[in-house]
Design a protein that fits this description.
FAD/NAD(P)-binding domain, about 400 residues, eight-stranded mixed β-sheet, D-Amino Acid Oxidase, Chain A, domain 2, alpha+beta, single chain, 10 helices
Length: about 400
């Protein structure tokens, strides 16, 4: 997408900084209410890699309210099962098909596809993303917020708003400007993230978590309309290569996988990253509010991140709409009261999953495997875990 040539208006009701899934969702809710807003993003175009690839049941319920769940489902692959393995042994199988939702499954679809569907919906509502605009300062004053920026030509400008939503990621300029702390820590391991074409012996209707002394590996199917046998691989390494190759991914799966015929044929996209587990100390500071990765980041275990961010935005947009229509500003306090505990719960849950999956000492691994295989035979445990993974407790 090319940068939009039209200059920004001098004032608006809401400025949203960051046009990822959370920012787009917030913009849709405001556009549907007929409010004026400006959505800024520092990138010249939207996501063109898959990154987050999991969409859970609760998020699909939220997107159904925006009229796009069915379209998004049509882009992906439905996965009704989550399994945990140690080598060739299956320790637990979690089924989603018994959940009380119209979407009793995990949907695997690349983030760039999710963003494209959200952007299409935003444009249908009359909204647009302004790119590239780099926000340099956010100044919260008594009667409004001033957002200073640099546009694609390098010219500086500013826009005045009643409220600002920071959906600008882990290194949020908006959060820093508001003076909101981001409490947490960083995992010692680095993570490999790759989309590959490969021969894989496990059925394409399940996400497989593989435990091993060398680290944890998750393999999930991706839609393969254009790339047959396409999979997402996420794995922990003490020191991951900057751009993992076919040989790197093959070595990981040979060491940690289920055995059988595993043949990595092509790496379509790969990266490495460090994982933080952090939650903003507050979701609101005066007229500044946070959503998505600006408010919380955590382990990719369970694929919760993008989902929680979309749900943040879907909750915040209607609250802002009501306040801008004349209801008390204190109504916005309920946003933090409801959404921050959700983020704390997600961080705690994914942290437990990550630590469980990465234990190294043999006695601890044997105990873990025994516990998982025992609990995995209890229907109530399987249901509870499926319910939590699907984020249905966040309703």
């Amino acid at each position: 997408m090319n940068a939009i040539p039209n200059p920004l208006p001098p004032t608006t009701s809401v400025v949203i900084v960051g046009a990822g899934p959370a920012g787009l969702t917030a913009a849709i809710t405001l556009a549907d209410a007929g409010l004026d807003f400006v959505l800024l993003d520092r990138l010249t175009e939207g996501a063109n890699t898959s990154r987050a690839a999991v969409v859970h049941a609760r998020t699909l319920e939220v997107l159904e309210q925006l009229g796009i769940a069915e379209e998004l489902v049509s882009t992906g692959i439905v996965v009704p099962r989550f399994t945990v393995h140690d080598g060739g042994r299956t320790l637990a199988t979690i089924q989603f098909d018994g959940l009380p939702t119209r979407y009793p499954y995990t949907l695997m679809t690349p983030q760039d596809t999710t963003e494209a569907v959200l952007l299409k919906r935003l444009r249908k509502a009359g909204g647009e993303v302004h790119r590239p605009y780099v926000v340099s300062r956010v100044i919260d004053e008594t009667d409004g917020v001033t957002v200073e920026y640099t546009d694609a030509a390098g010219a500086e400008g500013s826009i005045r708003a009643d409220y600002v939503i920071g959906a600008d990621g882990m290194h949020s300029i908006v959060r820093e400007a508001a003076g909101i702390g981001f409490t947490g820590a960083t995992y010692a391991e680095s993570f490999v993230l790759a989309d590959v074409r490969m021969d894989w012996p496990i059925a394409r209707d399940e996400v497989a978590l593989h435990l091993s002394p060398e680290g944890v590996t998750v393999v999930a199917p991706l839609p393969d309309d254009h790339e047959p046998n396409r999979y997402r691989v996420v794995a922990t390494l003490e020191t991951a290569p900057e751009r993992p190759t076919v040989e790197d991914i093959q070595a990981i799966l040979d060491t940690r996988g289920p055995g059988g015929q595993v043949k990595v044929r092509e790496v379509l996209w790969s990266s490495r990253f460090r994982v933080h587990h952090r939650v903003a100390d507050h979701y609101r500071a005066g007229r500044i509010l946070l959503a998505g990765d600006a408010a919380h980041v955590h382990s990719p275990a369970g694929g919760q991140g993008m989902n929680t961010g979309i749900q943040d935005a879907a909750a915040l947009g209607p609250l802002l709409t009501r306040v801008l229509a004349g209801e008390p500003d204190t109504l916005l306090d309920s946003y933090e009261a409801t959404r921050r505990p959700v983020a704390l719960g997600v961080v705690s849950f994914t942290d437990r999953m990550t630590k469980m999956a990465t234990v190294r000492p043999r006695p601890a691994r044997l105990l873990r495997n025994l516990t998982l295989s025992t609990l995995g035979r209890i229907p109530a445990f399987r249901y509870r875990l499926a319910f939590q993974l699907a984020e249905l407790a966040n309703r």
